[in-house]
Write a structure and sequence with these properties.
The protein starts with a strand and ends with a helix. It has two domains: about 1-210 and about 385-400, Glycogen Phosphorylase B (Rossmann fold, 3-Layer(aba) Sandwich); about 225-380, Glycogen Phosphorylase B (Rossmann fold, 3-Layer(aba) Sandwich), CATH 3.40.50.2000. It is an alpha/beta fold and about 400 residues long. The relative contact order is 0.11. The radius of gyration is 21 Å and the shape is globular. Helix content is about 35%, strand content about 15%. The strands form two sheets. A seven-stranded parallel β-sheet has the order 3-2-1-4-5-6-7, with helices on both faces. Strands 10-9-8-11-12-13 form a six-stranded parallel β-sheet, with helices on both faces. β11 (about 305), α11 and β12 form a beta-alpha-beta unit.
């Protein structure tokens, strides 16, 4: 079997690592794996194909910023990609994140509609069934159920500053994405599955396959990471994100820092240089890292992992923390609460930082290993990548 996947990135970030892990499983089972991606240059065990170049991304970004036409740029790059797909002749095409200024959805789906190749599209957010945004629950917008217009999030990613084209985008995307007969959809959360079931994609088969993580890398262990970041014997409250902004709860962490005692420290992983310079004294900032062993050491060192995300689907950071034996406190956002149960963490109303601190303090009051076994056991039982991505392999075999 030849599997050809398309994603914004490869082997980096949550979507890139998931794409890579699926490819690795295919290779381990004697299949061929190809991954086409839009940006970055991370190594991969699959055969990789770079889509376009930096100039393509910039021009696509300009088309989005001026005309609100995200997903309708990168014409030449997508045509070249189609030639490469034709030469490889894959048995399965796996789509992942198609937003990110790198691919033309109209050209890609026209090609897919003309071929009798099974397509499996993994959705990580809501962009596939809206006229513009990736998430709408933070403002409780329901326009997407019948037809987007006058988008209240036009200047949010993928940002457009001069035009609101959400009404036309919605109609075009509905026609484009419903043009492929042999398409199956995969989601990682019940939350997103329910939304897709109400959208214009509802007539496609929708499969729930949870995200998976490497439980051999992410595991409880004693490390010397405290010394590296001068954490001493302080209680550690950890947060991780690829990009820190209001959506990921950076403002909430800064507010939370004012509640903490002298023996408690917040550690935030994934900050850029600008953010690092403006942190309160009781927040230790760490730049984004591709070193998974160090990331796992930080999870294992933490007393509690906090995820005050305002918009999300099914964050893999929650799973990684659990696998390292660390309980999770998260906002009631999207599918984020689905990662935990009453023995492995707490769910808090969005924006209630005082309640967030209350649950954190409850966890910190327990013995260090009070939650460890339950957290680790839940991750091993439900989120082991080998089990989860075997579900993909089973789906591919079924479609063939």
């Amino acid at each position: 079997m030849k599997i050809f996947q398309i994603n914004t990135t490869v082997n980096t970030g949550s979507t890139g690592r998931i794409t890579e892990d699926i490819g690795n499983l295919m290779i381990e089972n004697g299949h061929e794996s190809y991954i086409a991606y839009g940006r970055g240059n991370r190594p991969s065990k699959s055969k990789t194909i770079k889509i376009g170049n930096q100039s393509d991304i910039i021009l696509h970004g300009l088309k989005t910023a001026v005309f609100d036409l995200h997903g309708f740029g990168s014409v030449a790059a997508t045509r070249q990609l189609i030639k490469q797909i034709d030469s490889i002749q894959p048995d399965i095409i796996g789509l992942h994140n198609l937003h990110g200024y790198y691919i033309n959805i109209e050209i890609l789906f026209k090609y897919l509609s003309q071929k009798n190749i099974p397509v499996v599209w993994t959705l990580f957010d809501c962009w596939s069934f809206t006229g513009h945004c990736t998430y709408f629950d933070d403002i409780d917008c329901r326009k997407w159920e019948t037809g987007c217009y006058a988008c209240p999030k036009t200047n949010r990613y993928p940002s457009s500053y001069l035009k609101d084209n959400s009404k036309t985008n919605y109609k075009n995307k509905r026609n484009i994405f419903n043009s492929v007969s042999n398409l199956s959809i995969v989601v990682h959360s019940n939350w997103l599955k329910e939304l897709v079931g109400k959208s214009y994609l509802k007539d496609y088969p929708i499969h729930l396959i949870r995200s998976g993580i490497d439980i051999e890398i992410f595991r409880p262990e004693i490390t010397s990471i405290r010394g590296k970041y001068s954490l001493g014997n302080n209680k550690v409250i950890l947060g991780c994100a690829s990009i820190w902004d209001k959506r990921k709860g950076l403002d909430d962490f800064i507010q939370l820092s004012s509640y903490l005692s002298s023996g408690e420290t917040i550690v935030l992983v994934g900050l850029n240089q600008q953010r690092l310079k403006s942190l309160p004294s009781n927040i230790v900032g760490i730049e984004r890292t591709e070193n998974l062993n160090e990331l796992a050491a930080l999870y294992a060192t933490a007393d509690v992992f906090v995820n005050p995300t305002w918009q999300d689907n099914f964050p893999t950071t929650n799973l990684e923390a659990l696998a390292c034996g660390t309980p999770v406190v998260t906002y009631n956002t999207g599918g984020s609460p689905e990662a935990i149960d009453e023995q492995t963490g707490f769910i808090v109303e969005k924006g209630n930082v005082m309640k967030l601190n209350e649950k954190i303090q409850f966890i910190l009051s327990k013995e260090n290993d009070f939650y460890s076994f339950a957290c680790r056991n839940r991750a091993v039982q439900y989120f082991n990548k080998h089990g989860r991505y075997n579900d993909y392999l089973a789906l591919y075999n079924k479609l063939l």
